[in-house]
Fold each of these.
Amino acid sequence: MKMGKQVIVVSSGAQVAGLSTMDKWPRKKDIHYRQALCAVGQVQLMKAWRRAFEKEDLFIAQILLTREDFSDANRTLNMRNTLFTLVDEGIIPIINENDTVSVEEIKIGDNDTLAARSAILWSADLLILFSDIDGLFNKNPKEDSSAVLVEQVRDIAEVRKNISIGATNNFGTGGIATKLDAAEMALSYGIPTILANGGKPRSLEALAAGNQKGTVFLV
């Protein structure tokens, strides 16, 4: 942001945050308890983001969305107006799925898809998908040490034919397959996408400086 960039963050984690707060609830599998966990967790998640950004004297705002919001013209316009107003004022929107009201029929389902939809909604110049791996590999690097990083992709359909996707990670609702889908969605609107490891120190700055490798998806 000091470099003049405008930033929107798409963040999951409400249910996990809720589980860490309500230690007796994990045994309850009922959908109402799961949604209640998310309601509790949203508060904890936003507290964590607020603490992180207030060190730089930056304010955050929370935006909770469902799939239906992206298909309604009036809601879409209102969402765009809110996003533009916030970023123009130097406030960082934190977007998450509204799990407290979402059921299977209206769920977006995974953070990668939500990020791609949000990037399209905002007409972003770039979508960055942070993961716990360094980018797209020809094989799952957690299962095969011979896996090689693919640093540039221009044909996602071809990539799908030639890589071994492997298993979904434990905490996410999607693995590399959802990231490919998200990149393809963003590219269809001319938005280049980077897949990189968000667990490395100051990874966003390192990417901007060209000091960290990842996979860039280009039209």
Note: The longest helix spans residues 31-54.
Amino acid sequence: MGIYKHILVAIDLSDEATVVLEKAKEIASFNNAKLTIVHVIEPLNIAYGSDIPLNATSFEKEITEHAVQRLSFLSEKMQVSDEEKHVIYGKPEKEVHRIAKNNEIDLIVVGSHGRHGLALILGSTSTSILHGACCDVLAVRVGKK
């Protein structure tokens, strides 16, 4: 029996998500652990001024449909059941922390681009997830090698 029992993989939906999922799947297999995947959609905050009303509902619906389709493709590829994949709205770090706490997650796996300069100063989603996590966090290096 391994040290991890339930692994949460927080992914964006880029091509690099496959790298993160493959690493998480490998760790889950080694530990005979359950694997859960989440993609968090940040709410749109589009403002054009008070004179032009903007209804972002159809745009959000389109984003959600794309996310569900992409996550279905990725989770099928990784043999993750429908019950263990989630597309939700909110701030990624807060939602990942909430899911981890509510589901007895003992490892969170995220992708990291290893940004420098201004992007490093402003922070990143993976850094935000690391801070405040209730369990171990693994940042899988993606992008430049």
Note: The longest helix spans residues 57-77.
Amino acid sequence: MKQAKRLISVLLTVVITFSATACGKYDRNKLARELDIETPVTVNVWYNDKRYESYLDNVSKEFNVANNLVTINPVYYESDNFIETIYDETVKNDNAPDIYITSSENCEKAYLMGLMLENDAYKDIYTDKVYGKAAITSCSYAGKLYGYPVSFKMPVMVYNKKYANAVTSFKEIEDINNNYEVTEENAEVTMVYTFNPSDMLLNYPYVGKYINIGGSTAEDSSIVTMDENKVKSAVTAFSKLRDLYGIDSSVMTQDKCIELFSQNKILYTVVSSDRLYELSSSGVDYGIIPVPSLEEGLESRAMSVTTMAVVNPYTSNIAVSKAVARAISYDYVDELNDTAGLSCARGDCANIIGIENYRALHDIYNESIVKAKFVGVSNIYMRYEILIHQIWDGTDIDAAMETFNKEVSGFLTNRTYN
């Protein structure tokens, strides 16, 4: 009997240990404790997004408790040209950050400026299995992984679970809209669907499947192709949303949509994943699904942007800097949502946002289109934004598409990098 009880105890211990590990509750301080250093080291971490302030401060404190020889010093730099600022400070002013936090869109620029040290110390962690395809592709360049994926943003559709269910197409939302009946129970709902049509990240899913910018790596500037018939069908269907749901682009900002959704006034809307924390904080019970296709015969696919930590080759201590980059992107990242309100790129932390939404979010992220990262690509995205604004405002679709094609072709011919 004693042996049976002992066996049960051991099995329970194994189950508890496995469950804790699955939720990311492992010995997160192990790496910090085991760093082979004998004298104090300061690691300067530069960032230009204030949302990371509390998170980085927290990582700094926890890492220092685990290894008091390492001081992580987060430094906020307000700069519109962050990579250029890092280059100038590093090369010209002998003021190099050891690590910096930046968007994956800056991959090629940072690489060409010699500001990226390869992420090669923890190959068992930085894999598709842990982070997903989009994260690893976003943080890679020329066949090598450089960035340490920290967070991401992409569009998702959210629905109010109190009054609505998941859908797979806009046809279902249209049917709900056409047949919606107001009762005492749902009286607070004022709209079935609305969103901000002017935000490129939010409207790109409708054409994303049919425009290829940068190829499979998102970095090949010679690849910019488009299925014109599908794109035309997609933007035509997109333009119908305005009148069908009475969407005023000057009123329905993302802030407004989040405000209304948080008040249980909207059944369905599209938001950027880096704003989900606001919905969670509001207490509204919501679900996450991919942005649905607009019409039969069309598909939708979200585009994502990943924020990454990068080790500067000019760091004074490579091994410690790589360990800190790992700490920021892996060891402590299960606290990113609570401290910064952001979705972590690490895909195996099931205790974030609620396990159901977290898994749904990462499934979408894993299959998302990586926003292109070659120098000058902003010219193409800018022209796409103009196209969408024109079509939403009623410009003839054929004329708008013709202008878009000419401008993109002109860019590809002249390669004007701005």
Note: Residues 2-22 form the longest helix (21 residues).
Amino acid sequence: MTVLYEDNHIIIVNKTASEIVQGDKTGDTPLSEIVKQYLKEKYAKPGNVFIGVTHRLDRPVSGLVVFAKTSKALSRLNEMFKGSEVKKTYWAVVKERPPKDEDELVHYLVRNEKQNKSYAYDTERPGSKKAVLHYRLIGRSQYYYLLEVDLKTGRHHQIRCQLAKMGCPIKGDLKYGFPRSNPDGSISLHARRIRFIHPVSKQLIDVEAPLPPGNLWNGFEFLTTDLPQ
């Protein structure tokens, strides 16, 4: 965990792929507790420190997570996330080139709680939720393609599920059809940038997370013109 932005009301951190945002059945220390401890030590606070979870990132995903430091910021951020007022941009590494270099994907996702997995359909199904994202191809390396994804809705495993449905499962994502896992158990999906109007100061907050270390993320040639077909 690295702190990328902090003020009196919010703190934004760059999570590693192994960290969990909130406690779960593994019993591993969640990021929310790590951030609490960080604040407690930094400000030598006696007693409990308030930290509010405003959204989640799947455990194998790296990148930006926003926490609230006050209950006022938490309630406002919760409303902003619900109302799609927080703009989130992800980078995803895929093996297969997408059918189009840029497109909007619209699917209807059905979540299977037992499997902790979502299934994407082209038409509405009972219990389905509409999922919308926009992607564009921004880089390529010898073996992989780099997609930039803007989320329009926030559904369970949305990017993982929709890209797999398109025929481009994310590198390392066994659950959604990639043939091999990544050595560290991560999937190659990174919450790269987050933009929103600060819930209290009303200033624009625009934070970008550095890329995970390693040759994979740093080996891309970025595309500035249309790719040859």
Note: The radius of gyration is 18 Å.
